[in-house]
Structure formats: C-alpha cells, structure tokens
Amino acid sequence: MLLVDMKSKKINFENMKIIDISWPITKNCTEYKNKKTVQFEFLKNFDQDNVRDSIITLGSHTGTHIDAPAHFLENGKTIDQINLEKFIGKAKVLDLTHVQEKITEQNLDQFYIVKDDIILLKTKNSLLSETQNFEPNFVYLEKSGAEFLAKKEVKTVGIDYLGIERNQPDHETHKILLEKEIVIIEGLRLKDATEKEYFFYCLPIFTVGLEAAPARAILIK
C-alpha cells in the first residue's frame, strides 16, 4: 500500500516494489518503422568544461509515449488538455502472451474489466529487444478489441509495442478509442509485470498543442 504522511508530506515506500515499464531512450532504441529520430548531442563534457550539457532530439511518438485524441481526430484534445487522472490510478495488466497476431473481443472477454479501468495489454511484444529493428508483425489491438474496451468505458489503454495497430484501414483502433477520449499509451515494457492489479503512473511531458508526448511509466505493487 502507498502511504502518505499528510503532516510531513513524505511517502512511505515500505513493502512497495516499483517496476519501471518505460522504453529506454538511447541512440539505438527501436523506433516506429525505424524512423531514427533520436539524437544525442553533447555540448559540453566534464574533461574539458567541468560540466556536462547535452541536447536530446526525438519524435513525440518515441519510446513510451501517450497518444492524445488530436493524433487522429481533427478537433481532438491535445496532450495538455487531457486530465492527468487518465494516467494515474489502479491498472490491470492482462496477460495476452498466448495471442499470436491480434487481440480481439474474444481475447478480452475473459477478463474482468469495468468502467474507468486502466488496461495494460501484455503480449509477446514485451520479449522483443528495445534496440532491435522495428518488428512490423507485432501483436496489435484489433477493431473488435478496441470496440469492446470502448463499450466498457475504460479510461486508458496501454500496449507493449510502439503502435497499438498495424496500419488498419482508416486507423480504426485508434479512432474507436480516441473518439471516446480513451487515451492510448504505446511503447510499454511489461515483461517483468505479472497479471494482476497495480498502482500506475505514466505522466507525459507537458507539451502544449501536440498530439503526443513521451512519458515515464511505472507500476507499484
């Protein structure tokens, strides 16, 4: 249990385990369709300047990131317009590592899913290396699975690869979720998370007017 002493405002981490489920950002990290947007530029180094300073260049959909409705909806909300409650709370990790190609309604119907759940989809994608070439045949959330989660009125859906769909016609999976303001988290790393309920934090960089933003995601049990 996460205990907070309201007088001292200190968090008691006793008996807690934090699992980092973020995609490491490196110069060689896997990027969607091998875009290669990540660049590290070192402006100063300690040997010459007695200080370190650097510039990071990356895409808004790099590594662990959040898709806002504006990603696919003309008048959809941008990252800064989304209530942060979407990214904090109890989350259910669903073990779908047996799924070979796509997650359908039939795959999800076996789980207990209710309104306002944060749903994290663990698949065999989590076994892929964080630095290998982009895998085009990753396990994705198919239209019927997205419709099922939308009907359940979950508040957030996360998946363990850099996309939640594989170029589906008219981007159906994205639109089904985003039209209901169910935000999408892509690029999670769930290999160390077992199927259970956790407390979840995944806060996007505070960008203004953008359709997506990188984030750091953790589970607490």
Helix content range:
10-25%
- In sequence order, what are the helices and strands, one letter per element? EEEEHEEEEHEEHEHEEE
The CATH superfamily is identified as Putative cyclase
Query: Number of helical runs?
Result: 4
The quaternary structure here is single chain
Kindly provide the radius of gyration, computed on alpha-carbon positions and rounded to a whole number of angstroms. Answer: 18 Å
SSE-based structural type: mainly beta
Q: Any idea what the CATH architecture is? A: 3-Layer(bba) Sandwich
Sheet bearing the most strands, described? 7 strands, mixed, barrel
Explain what the structure shows.
By secondary structure, the chain is mostly beta strands. The chain has one domain (11-25, 60-220): Putative cyclase (Glucose Oxidase, domain 1, 3-Layer(bba) Sandwich), CATH 3.50.30. The protein is 11% helix and 29% strand. It has four helices and 14 strands. The chain has a seven-stranded mixed barrel with strand order 6-12-11-9-7-13-14. Strand 13 and strand 14 (212-220) form a beta hairpin. Helix 3 (143-152) packs parallel to helix 4 (172-178). The radius of gyration is 18 Å and the shape is globular. The mean pLDDT is 94.
